[in-house]
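Let's practice the habit of predicting before peeking. Look at the sequence and jot down your guess about where helices and strands might fall. Then scroll down.
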Amino acid sequence: MGDPGEQGGAGVTESVTVMVVDDHPIWRDGVARDLAEHGFEVVATADGVDAARTRAGAVRPAVVLMDMQLPDGNGAEATAAVLTVSPASRVLVLSASAERADVLDAVKAGAVGYLVKSASVAELVAAVEATAAGQAVFTPGLAGLVLGEYRRMASAHAAGPDSGVPRLTDRETEVLRLVAKGLSAKQIATRLSLSHRTVENHVQATLRKLQLANRVELTRYAIERGLD
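Done guessing? Here is the structure:
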């Protein structure tokens, strides 16, 4: 993975449990070691779809780092299997592939982020922290691909305005678009010249209006409607 970065640390990440799924032992063990050195609690590793399902059901990790190429299936299948037995887990794909089909399959299966394996340790640590906090994390360029695909899907299936969908204010819609891009509340506050508290208030108001549980569901809502 390269030299550990400056980000992370036991004070921030010690309560975040992680499972690493990859069929290459050297890579899998190296990633697990890097995360442990930055204070994450690596509670399990797995080398395939079946092992990932079994171990996720046993340990219920907060974050699952998922490879796309596995010997008994692919990362999308493993993601769906993991979320069936551990629905509160958040899956972050870490793959050598940046192919459009792989990215979209992973997201459709329930992954909340996608990194390529060229990421540095610092980038990985930051991504796992963000994923645990409910943010969507993508390697630059992939977020636009995902948003564009869901925008096309939404347009293709739209027969007219959504009746019965709660109306958001212009500011709430603006914040929602930035949430969909993976920005944190602090980054959104800076972008819109608002206070951090005001941004959080808009996010919470939007969650209540749309009857969603967290930022991950909010991001999916925005992506499905092509809000970018």
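How did you do? The chain has a mean pLDDT of 82.
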